[in-house]
## 1
Amino acid sequence: MSAYSCIRRLAASVWVGGLATVILGLALARERRRELARSVLPRYSTLALWSVAVLLIAGTLGGIAHVGRVGDLWGTTYGKLLLVKIGLALVL
């Protein structure tokens, strides 16, 4: 397993695990839900943004490392699909 793959898994785990924790916490908060949401959601949003940024960077670098040469980005089907995926991620 490559270092990029480990980093992607860690970032995805932080993002999804944090989301699950926020949802569970809000579900259990009941009458204090709004107060909890006001304090937790901005913090989680920052964490989620950084997690997605790490996912995008590590995924891009891992994909380029997998292709081997920069010229293969345009010369192989995998490379072309990777460029499309990177472009879509940048738009989002």
Note: The chain has a mean pLDDT of 89.
## 2
Amino acid sequence: MMRALRKWSPLNGPKNPIESTTIIPIENNPLRKLSLPPSKSHLIRWAMMAALQDNQTMLRFEGIPGEDAESMRRSLIQMGANIESNNDGWRVDGGAFRRPISVLHCGNSATTLRLLAIQVASLAEPVMLDGDANLRARDHSTIVQLLRDLEVEVSHGSGPESLPLLIKGPINNSSVQVDVSKSSQPLSALILASHSLNQEVKVETIGKPVSQAHGELSKQVGQQCGMPEFNITLNKWNVNPPSEVKIPADSSLLAFIHLFNHLHASDISVELETKDILYPEVLDSPIQGKINLSTANDLITPIAALMCLQNGGEIVGVAHARHKESNRIEKTVEMLKSFDLEVEATADGLRMEGGQEVAVPTENVACFGDHRMFMTAAVLATKVGAELDSPGCYQVSWPEFSELVQMK
């Protein structure tokens, strides 16, 4: 059970309000089944492509989309699409994008920002993209460099805040290098925007690729909308998505249910119609030994908590998780320490002993505005109780998360 509070904390002299949430230990959760929201990775990509064509596309899904997906929906409406939400999903009536009359605010969604950054370059008019404080503080240097390499004009914030971006196309360069060592999103953005190219563009990827499943998803969405198979070059093509698309549930959120079930010896389950390309197969096996999460780095915080409580082990292949909503390697260590769970940061992941027990935090647990950090902490707190900051950030991905932790 959870209730929101407002505390006052001195920061640089003046007092500033800090929202916090108290989670009370619960004996059990009477739920036996729980529904998940639609995958934001799928919904964001499909909504953008459906908005680019003159016909209607029905994006069918169950559950309530998170705020990240809603950020894309709002931005697409600003650029001329009509996206109606109903009980079955989103009905998208699209057409050619037009220059928005105001800033495209991407909220907390780096995916929305980066995918739109290349799309708006085709408008050949200045467009500004911005986000919330968390998104402003993230590293967007790779997408900025890609825009400049494409000879697109771009300016951005300075200092600790790298947003807003002011972008003015068109794309002029016929060859470009794309760094895929931190994120797959810049390459995804270029692939999904290639329909608007005025010339052939030769693409060379550099760096060790990460989040390959998300990159492959972008290729699949593009090809189902009429894009030729991508090898080395990209060319102009006509966007023609299916009239109906089924958006799968966000299976990455299963990790939080696994953690809850372990803590409470419960058996809450989720029925998935299909296991899509982003399904984290690691959840089908014992959480122990050395686990490579290079294609599922969003899981590192709940999986680290599970490994502490179960058999221990090591998470590898997630150095790029330092560039997420928070530095998820260092901040996972810090957050879990609040619950007396010991985790060691390594060069590309985390290492921990098993058989540990959750303890009551002695002070407010910092979640760093990171929805996956908060949800992990909230689930742990259902065992021992805790006060957490960043109380509303879970709505980025899972608005109905409150049902799992009996949030009031």
Note: The chain is about 30% helix and 20% strand.
## 3
Amino acid sequence: PGSHSRRPAGIRGMMLPLLPLALLACSAPELQVLSVTELGPIEQNSMIRGRDGGYSGMAFDHSVWLYGDSVLSVENEDGSAWCNNTASWTQDLDASDNLEDFTDWVGSRWVPVEFLPRTEAEAAFNTAHEGDDCLEEPCGARWALWPGAIVEDPDRDRALIFYHLIYGENGEWNFESVGSGIATWSGLDQQPERPVVDADHAQPTLLWHDPTAAFGAAALVEGDSLYAFACEGDWAKRCLLGRAALADALEPTAWTYWDGAGWTQELDQAVGIFDAHTMLSVHYDDAIGRYLALYNRPLDDRVYLRTAEHLEGPWSRDEAVFATEPSHDGAVAYGAMAHPELDRGDGAFVYFSYFRSPADWEGEIQLVEIEIAAP
């Protein structure tokens, strides 16, 4: 049987009594779950009250973390305490005692600022619709950017960052994705760029203009190929799989999609290979000799695993292996994803994170260690 322990933040090496009920399954398909240890929240800049997301990957010899909506405790140089995305990175790759020594992407006042840039047209639109006395109706309309998966492309001295372009107006949950693209990033001292890939389109930086095919929910590099997942839908988030040569990732016509029998350039012929969520991770784990997908289901506080010998499948059924700590108001935690750059023991120890809110307008990224083995 597996075991579970909770390790509170700030107490290094102290193990609390085992809580086996929090480990929901002793085994998942094609793997054994030997233990789960909760390590507490990762280090967070004191000027940030909370931020969700938490995609990560190696880039420029650092573990780089990308976050979505971020609430600040101070105003940044734009006079705002809200960012649609932020980023931080660390060279601490030993996650067994949690992570520290993060550096944040900051502005001239050393306050965190948005990492992914808006285009001139998007920035001008936001300015024109800003405030209650805006220049153009509807007031409060805006463009936002949410980061997705990040992959390294060392042959071209860059990292590739998937992102989703979001259009929103005033009102609760009044926003929607209009498509997704890939930003290029050339160094820790530089802001990413969003190359124009379709100059004739109203949104020229997007590779995918279909919001139901928001690629970048997960991504990984295998050899010279870049694979990306898009998981959308009302309740069942059916995941599509696309691939392109890593060197040609910014060419829309370079992408092909799995149709159940082979690869096609017709996106509308792509078929779902498994159900997951809009945020997840997929990576190859040497300890079990299979691909491992990790995620929460929608509105489900449990973390699920499923495996496959090939990215195209067939994928095993998923199994719940961990129950996340709920947010302060009982809301479901979300955003579970693995961080394979932190793996130990050839993948025997996998580290994943999830987001929860400890108080109003506050958030933290919780880190968890899971030990797995082949059955």
Note: The chain has one helix and 24 strands.
